[in-house]
Design goal:
The structure is a homotrimer of 139-residue chains. Chain A contains 3 helices and 8 strands. With 139 residues, chain A is of the alpha+beta class. The longest helix of chain A is centred in the middle third of the chain and has 14 residues, at 57-70. Chains in contact: A-B, A-C, B-C. Chain A binds chain C through residues 1, 3, 5, 38, 40, 42-46, 70-71, 79-84, 89, 92-93, 95-97, 99-101, 103, 131, 133, 135, 137, and chain C through 1, 36-38, 51-54, 56, 58-59, 61-63, 66, 70, 97-99, 102-105, 107, 112-117, 137-139.
Chain lengths: 139, 139, 139
């Protein structure tokens, strides 16, 4: 069994954003030499997500508005977590809706995707350096 | 390490439905010859889900009503994604709540489930042929 | 390839609670002898979750209030599932928001976590014995 580990670093200049990280995960897969296996991609921070969906800017705006409706950033004092001095209580909730990470199949040395699947980093508390973990196992 | 890949195809006649696909995943497992490992089952389309829950029709109605409350299909023009000509903006949101897929343990050649766990395909934009991927790795 | 399986049992005295189970998963990992691989941790019951987030009591109160807003326990009769005689319709919905389980990378014999990542059992229909599955594969 082979395994490969890589960290991807991001510093998003805004509080929230969605970044297409598919090509960076494909690069990690190429480095691994794995042709059959599984690829785990997860946020290493608890106010961010990694998920699979469509690379369509209108959809990303829809996600942002919808998550703000489900778990609004303001008022800050609606979240007990923010009594710790943080202002990111909403980000911990938004991250649960979008998920911590994804597991993607590897077949014939490629990410085994349907036609529109792309991997995104979802940032909900940006403006600092944060990491995504790629862990690949297989043969 | 062994690996096995199988696609399951579905054409749901309605916009939304939940299908129990457990026996089809068990069939793929039997074909794989894997007795210890992991089984990834994921929608290959971004307006559908694969998830584990209970095979109880009332619960599935509850899910449908609840998802419609969280992310209503209409009015269509509430979603920027639908400016592309699609009418499935809501389906991309519903899919995030229910998840892209599941990873199930394989033990002694069987899906290692609790007493009520069953695998479902959740369709949120049906009436066309769509796929689920089963990828099994192990020994 | 090595594999290891362990069940963790819990009996939460209240309807809902969040339990930090990180050290129990680390114990299972130590027993496995695996140093590179993947660790699946999932609820074996369909009214409970396993997820990764922060060990901060205020945040856990925020999760509980938020989930009650998204899928209230009462009135019981708002859920068709409860026509079966159950009163846990809400728990099946809450569990989907928080997720069935997580896959965690194993690197150098340890759970490969960011600085604040901890694993939680989320109980939404407690007051009885329920199980979490830990399945580890790797080398």
């Amino acid at each position: 069994m082979k395994s490969h580990r890589k960290e991807l670093w991001f510093e998003v200049p805004s509080r929230r954003a969605f970044l297409n990280i598919t090509s960076q995960v494909e690069q990690a897969l190429a480095e691994s030499g794995v042709t059959e296996g599984l690829c785990l991609v997860n946020a290493m921070h608890i106010t961010a997500s990694v998920f699979v969906n469509d690379d369509e800017p209108g959809l990303h705006q829809d996600y942002d508005h919808w998550l703000e409706r489900l778990a609004p950033h303001e008022p800050i004092n609606q979240y007990r977590h923010n009594l710790t001095g943080e202002d990111n209580g909403d980000a911990h909730l938004k991250r649960q809706v979008m998920g911590r990470g994804v597991v993607v199949a590897i077949t014939d040395g490629r990410l085994d995707f349907g036609p529109w699947e792309q991997i995104f980093y979802g940032e909900f508390d940006g403006r600092r350096r944060k990491r995504v973990l790629v862990k690949i196992i297989g043969e």
